[in-house]
Amino acid sequence: MRVASAELTGIEANGSQERARFRELQAGFAEAWPHLAANPKAPRTVVVLPSLSLDTGVLARIAGAHHYEERMLCMLLLLRLPRTQLVFVSSQPVAESTIEYYLGLLPGVPHAHARARLHMICCHDATEHPLAEKLLGRPRLVERIRELIRDPASAHLSCFTVSPAERTLAVRLGVPIYGCDPDLADLGSKSGSRKIFREAGIGMPAGVEDITDEQALAEALAELRSRDPDLRRAVVKLNEGFSGEGNAVFSFAGAPSGSGLRRWVAGRLPRLGFEAQGMEWETYRAKLGQMGAIAEAFIEGREKRSPSAQYRVEPDGTLDMVSTHDQVLGGPSGQIFLGGGFPADPAYRLEIQAAGREAALRLREHGVLGRFGIDFISVQRGRHWEHHAIEVNLRKGGTTHPNLMLQFMTGGTYEPATGTFATPTGQLCCYHASDNVQAEAYRGLTPDDLVDLAVLEDLQFDPARQEGVVFHLIGALSEFGKLGMVAVGATPERAGELFRATIAVLDRETGNASDPAGTP
Questions:
Q1: What pLDDT shows up at residue 184?
Q2: Which domain holds residue 261?
Q3: Are residues 223 and 110 in the same domain?
Q4: Backbone CA torsion sign across 369, 202, 343, 476
Q5: Are residues 164 and 214 in the same domain?
């Protein structure tokens, strides 16, 4: 049932009423979900809102960040469900050639049939504000979306992350969100992650959470060193940082012992090694006061990996294991997310999946809904791997869209018992993906050039073979020389081979001699 405009005004004026209405919508979603999940041909409307409701200062340091909304264009592949209407909202127009590219990936669906069920809504706003806020400032656009929702009882919002702005929008539209209530957002902060890991009994690095100012940070770092006099480095992480951009490394080289340690640490805080390019201490200190932070022991090791496990809590409370990945990291100390390979190494993927599940169960108990990931640092100790949980990403992330692409293009399923993905015919599928394939020389390519090269070089994803390359972030190519790729193959080695072959074609065509980030 739609909420009348007058009633909406009252809801928005009273936060408690808005929360109550949102809970009603979410409860209705839980009731409707079993029918929708069991019947792919059931009519439904999905409103895709790829709003990057994250720290704008940190986000601004990512090249082409305003194109990151395009990562959720993978949701266009939901149009493979024959009675699904999809509304895709964006800050700026999405090129029709890009839309055509994604619709061309749909298996067995006539192009005209899919295009008729797709509705593109654009704010025509290139400012740094999150998309949800832009939309809320344009009531006529909100009303257009409301008119496109034929039956609110079978509709929902799909968001990259859920902030209070997305919740307000959901209430205005009268539809639920397939995502986590923003009142639970602290569970996905760096401090909240450590508390969840402690509840679940999962191993994590020695650390201190809930650091709110410079003095507390100095005390926390000194405490870590006092606990372990052999500690060489520590990591400071802003609570709301993402993709490693809010991290910094502190070195204890030359540190004194005894009572002078805290003063020594305090004097060296401006020398933090920041992962974010161009970050300075004064800016970082201000963000520390705004969002808080944690300090953790830096995990050392000769053979070190950064695997992650992804989960989904469905509206009816079902907990699904979705995937595992070995993340590809870069940056000054290897903490910036560049990409990842699915599945994680068989030596430990079931171990991190099981450990992460314990945290996932605690998150479900707290009321978490939707997709989320849990990151680990894993170090080889002899013949075994030692795992340290380091972060909960309570939102979609850099591993979400590659996984969705694989699922939608192949119709396959993930098998938790083996940690593998297979198509309906039993063919195994692996992939290597990156959002950070970037080189200055690539600015010479247009999106149409990119697609032409993929077709001419036989790199485009082939449904018959269930392998090939799919691109995303296509809009960032000409402006920033940057794009995203998902290379699918029957084995990790084949996926990596296709990824590198595509890089080689791009390098050859543009004369690029550098090694783009994210390459396996």
A1: 95
A2: 206-297
A3: no
A4: positive
A5: no
